[in-house]
Amino acid sequence: TLFRSTPIEFSQELISMAQSLGANVSDNKKSIRFTLKNDQTITFTNLPVGYYLQVRETAPGYAAYVNGIRTDWITVQINKGTNSDINYINRLAPATLKVRKVDEDNPNKPVSGAVFRLYKTVNGENQTLFTLTSNADGWLEYTEANAKETEMSLENGTYYLSEVTPPPGYNRMTETVTVTVSDSGVTAKINQKALTVQAQSRVYSFSLTNKEGVEVAFQKIDGYGKKISGAKFSLYKDYACTNRVDMTVQDLAATEAVSDANGKVAFRIPFGVYYMKETQAGDGFEDNPTIYML
Fold first, then answer.
1. Whether the Cβ atoms of residue 103 and residue 138 lie closer than 8 Å to each other
2. Is 28 helix (H, G, I), strand (E, B) or coil?
3. 245-250: long-range contacts (C-beta < 8 A, 24 or more apart)?
4. What is the largest CA-CA distance in the chain?
5. Which residues contact 137 (CB under 8 A, 6 or more apart)?
6. β-pairing, 203-210 with 95-103?
7. CA distance linking residue 71 with residue 56, whole number of Å
8. Could you please report the per-residue DSSP string of 97-108?
9. CA distance 21 to 239
């Protein structure tokens, strides 16, 4: 496609040239599709200066690399008097991965709006490969140049899938999924516990769950109505307050919630019975020993 802020129509000259090279032009004249064999090239000339050319390669079962970077898309700016070479290198991907988000209590209910990232560790640093959001059917999809995809072609190696933002009305999934791709297939584990992975040809899929929850919010004030910041609260499963419970605070897993400048304390928890106590008073105040049942 050619674009500045949005895709534009190809000129008749470019369309004729593309067709002469065996390429297919879309009905709206905004994209050109062509097929290349190994080591085959295609050249487009007289492209409009100042625009951007965006190229996407689709090679089922293969992972595409440009300049050593794993990507299906590449964008180049068209400058006067310069040439741009785009060289795709394809490596056989032993697996194509699909992941679906569903309700923990009702696995037949898809959950939309969860944001994940799939990453791998390279030289000690986490490198994000895909940022994904669950769609209306629960499938995690990524968007590149207005195209939505649910399938990820992966080479052999170890990958990690973590939830960045929970879906509306649900608690965040705090565990990281370890995905291992090998010549024999795909495995997925959470804390060493294996997930059920469905395999169809070289396409592998599994489901992840979220549990519905409720947001709890209140304000911490003194006897005169003054807002108190910095007070910390924790939740427990037992009245003796020995078994602490994780909560979701600002979309992150936490073991305590802290009152802000307005004295507000807010967190999200699954449905159930809990016991809450103040673990640290605000500056200049004494601890409140009261245990509250939620």
1. no
2. coil
3. 245/269, 245/274, 246/174, 248/166, 248/171, 248/172, 248/174, 248/213
4. 83
5. 100, 110, 112
6. parallel
7. 9
8. EEEEEEESS-TT
9. 76
pTM (two decimals): 0.57
- Cα angle for residues 201, 205, 207 (degrees, 5° grid): 160
Strand-pairing partners, residue 186, are: 181
For residue 122, what is the enclosing H or E element? strand 115-122
pLDDT of residue 61: 66
CA dist 249 → 57, 170, 241, 252 (Å): 40, 12, 20, 5
Structure tokens belonging to residue 87: 């060289």
Q: Tokens 């496609």 identify what position? A: 1
**pLDDT 10s digits, 31-56:** 888 888 888 888 878 788 888 877 87
Give dist(CA 170, CA 185) in Å, integer: 31
Residues whose CB falls within 8 Å of the CB of residue 237, separated by 6 or more in sequence, listed in order: 243, 244, 245, 274, 275
Tokens describing residue 49: 């200066």
Bridge partners of 118? 130, 161
> CB of 100 within 8 A of CB of 138?
yes
